[in-house]
Write a structure and sequence with these properties.
- Helix content is 19%, strand content 31%.
- It is an alpha+beta fold.
- Strands 3-4-5 form a 3-stranded antiparallel sheet.
- The longest helix is centred in the last third of the chain and has 14 residues.
- 7% of the residues are buried.
C-alpha cells in the first residue's frame, strides 16, 4: 500500500497519521504525529467535510481490517 493518499487537493502522508476519527455529523478528522495543545488535542489536525470526508470514509471502509469480535457489542 502506498504511504501517500490524495483527497481532493490534499495529499496525506499516511506514515505520520496517528488516528482518523469519523464524526457523527459526517466530518472526518485526521490527526498527525506531533505536539498537542493544553486539551491534549493534536495541533496537526486535518478536518475534512463534504465530498472529501465522504471520499476518505469510503477509502477507509474499503481498506480497514476490523478486529475479531468488533462490532455493535463494543
Amino acid at each position: 500500500m502506498t504511504s501517500l493518499l490524495r483527497v481532493g487537493d490534499t495529499v496525506i502522508n499516511l506514515a505520520v497519521v496517528t488516528d482518523i476519527q469519523m464524526k457523527a455529523g459526517g466530518e472526518v478528522h485526521v490527526n498527525f504525529s506531533g505536539p498537542v495543545d493544553e486539551n491534549q488535542t493534536p495541533v496537526n489536525r486535518l478536518e475534512l467535510g463534504g465530498r472529501e470526508a465522504e471520499a476518505l470514509r469510503r477509502w477507509i471502509e474499503s481498506n480497514v481490517q476490523d478486529c475479531e469480535g468488533a462490532g455493535d457489542s463494543w
